[in-house]
Amino acid sequence: PDGGASANATIFDVPVALVPQAVASVLLDSRWRDRLVGHPEIVGYGDAHGTSALHRLAASDQPHAADAILWWRAQGMDLAPRDAEGRVPMHAAAAGGHVANLVALDCAAPETWDIPDKYGETAMACLQRCHPEEGVRWATYRAGLTDHPSAPTDQPA
Question: For the chain, first and last CA: distance in Å?
Fold first, then answer.
């Protein structure tokens, strides 16, 4: 649907404005996500602000969001759709500080750390601004100075 769709327009009986949120929920559910394979126009559909289901999934604190991100990447889904502000899902995960989603996106699409939004802010800069301690961990890892942030930080005595 185009940006001029009426407020009452629906896709699969879901109001257009709620499609990214509804699809993000479906992306988490393995019983339904197989039915969306082959329909990137639905998975990548953005709301009025260009926020796609993948953006919502990356921003989600749902327990299986990271697994769903990796599953969709294995299906060939582009993990760098841009919203109206030029942000990619890595920006959404960084803003929320969701470590599991950051790890999944880092494994599946590490190049998305360096994509600037329309204001010039990368996901790394967003993480450092919104979650400074986590930003330091990721920055030192990406500079090759520490282990991957998903590695355990405390060692047994």
Answer: 58
Q: How far apart are CA 80 and CA 89, in angstroms?
A: 6
Secondary structure of 62-131 in the HEC alphabet?
A: CCCHHHHHHHHHHCCCCCCCCCCCCCCHHHHHHHHCCHHHHHHHHHHCHHHHHCCCCCCCCHHHHHHHHC
Q: What is the pLDDT of residues 90-140, one digit of tens each?
A: 999 999 998 899 999 999 999 999 999 999 999 999 999 999 999 999 999
Summarize pLDDT for 23-49 with one digit per residue, the tens. Answer: 566 666 655 566 666 665 555 566 677
Tokens standing for residue 72 = 């969709």
Q: Is 2 helix (H, G, I), strand (E, B) or coil?
A: coil
φ and ψ at residue 28, rounded to 5 degrees:
-80, -20
Return the structure tokens found at 39.
Answer: 């329909």
Distance separating alpha carbons of residues 67 and 82, to the nearest angstrom: 21
Q: Which letter does DSSP use for residue 16 in this model?
A: G
Q: Is the pTM of this model over 0.70?
A: yes
3-class DSSP assignment, residue 52: strand
